[in-house]
Specification:
The chain is of the alpha/beta class. The chain is 39% helix and 19% strand. The chain is built from nine helices and twelve strands. β2, α2 and β3 (57-60) form a beta-alpha-beta unit. It binds FE3-S4 cluster (F3S).
């Protein structure tokens, strides 16, 4: 017997305002000046990156690789040392750093100037965090595990990677406070989680609680997409993080009545629609359309 499958879409998903702005700025600059290179991928999504390449925006992995006269700083931002190096080379800079990331950078800089040790709750290898640590002028640490921070000084300032979950940040802050209370006289906490991330996570959670299967669409190296998948899985629902529709496996849909769909902030609408079509075709084994 065929089962009707209902697809529930998260009320907020896909491109966030920061990613939209970065793409628009880069496209506009490419239209004006021809060739551009971005330092690192402009957004963590292969489909978007290849779409931008067609418009003349190439990705380079290091500053040394940049040969175009114009360089694009991605929405993840960079440290002041990198901006300095770009200026020294005489490059024209198109800075698409997201305003939420910029807030975290400014907080890191101000805390450092005021003598605080900067602790960032986040993935130390992520470009956003590398940039934020740059603004802490080498005086910061980034980690997801409070126990690895080491000996805390008297003044500690805490920030979060923009794409972390509020619950994770709260847990980290609590642990850090407990570890530091003996020595640390002053703690300052800046909530630098971006509101687009919070809205997407809340919407995904809402859907995850109502379905039998959750599909999360976004680049495998996209931090915010991974976090969305974690948030969904935390409800106990079967969750799969895929980048494109070809990764959908028919067996996931066996005996499922409700499938939830969400997507990370760097996922294009076209990719989301592709996946929605893929899900529909997989839950239509007998050629009858599934209920939407
Ligand atoms: Fe900015 Fe948040 Fe998007 S930090 S790039 S609006 S996920």
């Amino acid at each position: 017997a065929r089962m009707d499958v209902e697809i529930l879409r998260a009320s907020e998903m896909g491109f966030c305002p920061g990613v939209r702005r970065a793409i628009e700025m880069a496209e506009k600059a490419a239209a004006e000046s021809g060739q551009l290179q971005s330092l690192g991928a402009l957004v963590h999504n292969r489909w978007v990156v290849s779409h931008l390449a067609e418009k003349g925006i190439q990705v380079s992995q290091s500053l040394a690789e940049i040969s175009a006269p114009t360089v694009v700083i991605s929405s993840h931002g960079v440290g002041p040392q990198t901006i300095e190096a770009m200026r020294t080379r005489g490059l024209r800079i198109v800075d698409t750093t997201c305003t939420f990331v910029r807030k975290a950078q400014v907080a890191a800089e101000k805390l450092t100037e005021a003598g605080f040790m900067v602790v960032v709750y986040g993935d130390a290898a992520h470009p956003e965090i590398q940039g934020v640590l740059g603004w802490a002028r080498g005086g910061g640490v980034a980690t997801l595990d409070a126990a690895t921070v080491g000996r805390l000084p008297r003044k500690v300032g805490l920030l979060s990677q923009t794409t972390q979950s509020p619950a994770g940040f709260a847990g980290f802050a609590g642990k850090l406070l407990a570890l530091g209370l003996e020595r640390t006289a002053e703690f300052r906490v800046f909530n630098t989680i971006c509101s687009a991330t919070q809205k997407r996570q809340a919407a995904a959670l809402d859907v995850a609680r109502q379905v039998d299967l959750m599909i999360v669409v976004g680049g495998h190296d996209s931090a915010n997409t991974r976090r969305l998948a974690e948030v969904c899985a935390s409800t106990g629902v079967e969750t799969h993080h895929i980048e494109t529709a070809d990764e959908l496996a028919p067996r996931w849909f066996a005996r499922k009545a409700k499938v939830g769909l969400t997507a990370g902030a760097s996922t294009a609408d076209a990719t989301i629609e592709d996946v929605a079509l893929g899900i529909e075709s997989l839950c239509r084994p007998t050629g009858t359309a599934c209920k939407k």
